[in-house]
From TrEMBL:
Signal peptide: none annotated. This is Dehydrogenase. Gene3D superfamilies: NAD(P)-binding Rossmann-like Domain (3.40.50.720). InterPro entries: NAD(P)-bd_dom_sf, Sc_DH/Rdtase_CS, SDR_fam. Keywords: Oxidoreductase. It holds the Pfam family adh_short. One of its GO terms (molecular function) is oxidoreductase activity. It comes from the Bacteria. The lineage of its organism: Bacteria, Bacillati, Actinomycetota, Actinomycetes, Kitasatosporales. Belongs to the short-chain dehydrogenases/reductases (SDR) family.
């Protein structure tokens, strides 16, 4: 039992399935009171009923106040987990402005809006925990989907900024950065996901395990795939070599299309 989680009031967005549902189940199993959010109201209600939680369906950007009210006026842990993976088109193709805008709104601005709502209360009481489901794409990148890669970099940068700005005032921040996870998003990632992510894909429950280990160790960066740390070091140490390797992967993918 993680003592900092027991009896906590928790919100998990995008929790109708996948990583979000796994997080909601784990928090509930640890004794937390959990609000389950998802755009799909039926899926949110099903998970909430399963774990004895509360369903607050809707757009993750707009439900923070409602979720807080459902929990009696307080949120202790907020899991910004809802995300989208969109292909914004390659140079020379028609630009999918709508796909870019949606990715930016869900993958970045929903986190910003949630923090804007939560921080005044958290700073006043000197505690609060913000969990951002990012992706290894936010540390590295992902072939075939510029909007996802770019906005996940943004999500990671915002989580970093929150941590460095407020950690001395009692705010805990965790950035979860897995590679492939067996979810609907992986199924929708097409041939690029099959090439890069599926061979080492893990279960959503493994991501929840990694988060709770990170909470116990008070770590900001949560890497369910430990090898991502080596990739991240290689990228920083020799960007050109790393980009050359990624370009070879791009060419391999193009050859299968």
């Amino acid at each position: 039992m993680v003592q900092t989680v027991q009896d906590a009031k928790v919100v998990v967005t995008g929790a109708g399935g996948g990583i979000g549902a796994a997080l909601a189940r784990r928090f509930a199993a640890q004794g937390a009171r959990v609000v389950v959010n998802d755009l799909d109201a039926d899926r949110a209600k099903a998970v909430a009923e399963e774990i004895g939680g509360l369903a607050v369906p809707g757009d993750a950007s707009t439900i923070v106040a409602e979720a807080r009210d459902a929990l009696g006026g307080t949120v202790d842990v907020y899991c910004a987990n809802a995300g989208v993976g969109r292909d914004g088109g390659e140079p020379g193709e028609p630009l999918d402005e709508q796909g870019w805008a949606l990715s930016w709104d869900v993958n970045v601005m929903a986190h910003v809006r949630a923090a804007h709502t939560l921080l005044p209360d958290w700073l006043e009481r000197g505690s609060g925990r913000f969990v951002s489901t990012v992706s290894a794409a936010g540390l590295l990148t992902m072939i075939g989907t510029a909007p996802y890669s770019v906005t996940k970099h943004g999500a990671y940068a915002f989580a970093e900024w929150l941590s460095l700005t407020y950690r001395h005032r009692g705010i805990k921040v965790h950035a979860i950065c897995p590679q492939g996870v067996r979810t609907d998003m992986l199924d929708a990632s097409g041939s690029a996901g099959a090439l890069v992510l599926e061979p080492t894909a893990i279960e959503p429950e493994d991501v929840a395990d990694a988060l709770f280990r990170g909470i116990e160790d008070d770590r900001f960066l949560i890497l369910p795939h430990p090898e991502v740390a080596e990739y991240y070091r290689a990228r920083a140490g020799d960007p050109d070599r790393w980009l050359t390797g990624m370009n070879r992967l791009q060419q391999q993918w193009e050859a299968t299309r």
